[in-house]
Amino acid sequence: MLHIVPDIDTSETLTERQKAVLDAALRLLVEEGDQLTMTAVARRASCSKETLYKWFGDRDGLLTATVQWQASKVRVAPVDAKGLDLASLTVSLERFASDWLKVISSDTSIALNRVAVGHAGSGKDNLGAVVLENGRFALAKRLKPVLEAGRQAGLLDFADAETAFRSFFGLVARDVQIRLLLGDRLELTEATIGGDAVRATQQFLALFGAKTGPQGL
Amino acid sequence: MLHIVPDIDTSETLTERQKAVLDAALRLLVEEGDQLTMTAVARRASCSKETLYKWFGDRDGLLTATVQWQASKVRVAPVDAKGLDLASLTVSLERFASDWLKVISSDTSIALNRVAVGHAGSGKDNLGAVVLENGRFALAKRLKPVLEAGRQAGLLDFADAETAFRSFFGLVARDVQIRLLLGDRLELTEATIGGDAVRATQQFLALFGAKTGPQGL
DNA sequence: GGCGAGCCGTACCGTACGTTACGGTTCGCC
DNA sequence: GGCGAACCGTAACGTACGGTACGGCTCGCC
Questions:
Q1: In angstroms, rounded to a whole number, what is the distance separating the alpha carbons of residues A212 and A47?
Q2: First to last CA, chain A
Q3: How far is the CA of B156 from the C1' of C10 (A)?
C-alpha cells in the first residue's frame, strides 16, 4: 500500500540554481527517457558532473529529485465544496476529469511514469511510490471531499468514497494511460478531452446519483 | 494507432528447444525485469550466448521473441454468443472482467508491461505495440462480438461498440494496472477479483442495459 | 568409423557510462 | 587585494555488459 513517502517539501530546500538544473534534467528526461546520461544532464544544465554528484548523490538521487521537483510543481488548490447543487457538482467533476486527462496525456507525465514504472521493476528506489503519491493518490485526496460533500447534499449515493472514486477514475481514464505508456499514438485534443470529461461525469452520476425522486425536488 | 504488428504465429516456427529457452528468458524477465543480461539468460537456459545471438539476433530480438512467445500462449477461445439472454450475457461479462483482472495482476503481465513501457520510451522496437495488440486490443476484439450480440438481442443499448468497450474496460480495470506497474502492493485475491467483476458488470449493465420496460418482458 | 552441423561453455573484445579527480575560474567576504 | 568556497569543464578510471571467437562435445548421416 506504500503510503510511506518522505513528505519533504523539496521546493523549499532547493536553491534556484538547483531548480534550474532539475528543470534541465526534466526536459532531458522527457526527450530521452530513462537512458539519459549524467554527462548529458550536466551539459544541458551547464553544470559539472561533480556538482550533480555533490547535490544529488548518484544517478538515482538525481532521478528521484527530478520526479519530486516536478511533483512539487503540480500541487493545485483544492476545490471548495460550499453551496453544492447538482450543477456545480457536475462542473466540479467535469473539471477533475478534464484536468486528469490533461495530466496523464502530457509528455511530462508520460515520461515520468515510464521511468517510474521501469524503476519499480528493479526495486532500487521508490520512484513508483512518489509518482503514485503525487498522481493517483493526490487526485483521490482532492476529489473525495467533493464526493463526500455531494453525498451530504443528497446528490450522491455511495457507501464508500474510495470505491466511488475508483469507479470515477476508471470511467475517466479507461485505457488512455496504459495505451499512452505503451506508445500508442492517442490524439487527445482539447475537444476530445472535454467530451470525455462530460461523458465520464454523466456515467458517474448515472451510477452514483441519488435517486430522490425526479431529481431536483 | 499502431495496428501494424507482424502477425507471425511464432508458436509454429519455433522448435521445442527454442520455446524452452524463451520460457527461461520469460522467467528471468519476471524476476529481474529489464536489466536481465544475456549471460544470465544463457546460464538459466543452459545454452550458449552464441546460440542466443544466432537465434534471436540481438538483445532486443530476444526480448521481442520472449514477449511474442508469451502472447502466443495467452490466446483464448472466443466466447460464443448464441442463445443470449440477460443471465448468460451477465455471466460472459463477468467472465471477461475476471479474466482480465487476473491477467493484469499476474506477475508475468506486470513484468512484460514494465519492459514494454520502458522500451516505448526509447522507440527502439515495437514491444509496446506487441503488448498492446495482445492485451488491450485482443480483449476488445474478443469482447466486441459479445457486446454486439447483446445489442442484437435487445439487451444492450449503445451507439458505438468501441466506446462501450472502453467504458467496460475502465469499470473493470480502474486504477489497478497503473498501481501495480508503479509497484503498489495491491492484493488481488480470487474473492476480490470475483467481487470486482460482478460490480463492474452491474455498473456496465446499469449504463448500457436496454431500457425496454422492466427488463424481461 | 569418419564427418560435419549445431550447440555448449568460456574467454575475450569494445564500448558506454557511472563515478571520481583535478586544474582553472568566479565570487562573496574579510 | 587576498583568501577560500563553490562550481565549471574535462580528463581519467573502473566496470558491467552486449557482442564475437573459439575449442570441445554430441549426434545424425553417409
A1: 63
A2: 42
A3: 64
Q: Do B136 and A207 touch (CB under 8 A)?
A: no
Residue A78, pLDDT above cutoff 80: no
List the A51 CA – C29 C1' distance (angstroms).
23
Phi, psi values for residue B161, rounded to 5°: -65, -35
What class does CATH assign to B12-74? mainly alpha
Helix (H) or strand (E) holding B33: none
Distance of CA A104 to CAs A68, A84, A119, B133, B163, Å?
17, 28, 19, 21, 19
pLDDT digits (tens, 9 = 90+) for A158-171: 999 999 999 999 99
State CA B189 to chain mean position distance.
19
Residue A134 neighbours by CB under 8 Å, 6+ apart: A71, A74
Q: Which residue of B has its CA nearest to A169?
A: B174
The whole-angstrom distance between B97's CA and the closest CA on chain A is 13
Q: Which one-letter amino acid corresponds to residue B60? A: D
Among B64, B56, B66, B53, which residue's Cα sits nearest to residue B24?
B66
Q: Label residue B124 by pLDDT band (50, 70, 90).
A: confident
CATH superfamily of A11-74: Homeodomain-like (1.10.10.60)
Closest CA relative to residue B155, chosen from B194, B199, B201: B201
Q: Which CATH number describes the domain made up of A86-208?
A: 1.10.357.10
Query: Which stretch of DSSP H or E encloses residue B79?
Result: none
Share of chain B above pLDDT 90, in %: 77
B102 within 8 A of B197, measured Cβ to Cβ: no
DSSP codes of every residue in B190-207: HHHHHHHHHHHHHHHHHH
Q: Where are the domains of chain B?
A: 12-74, 86-208
Q: Which of A75-79, A170-174, B69-73 has the lowest mean pLDDT?
A: A75-79
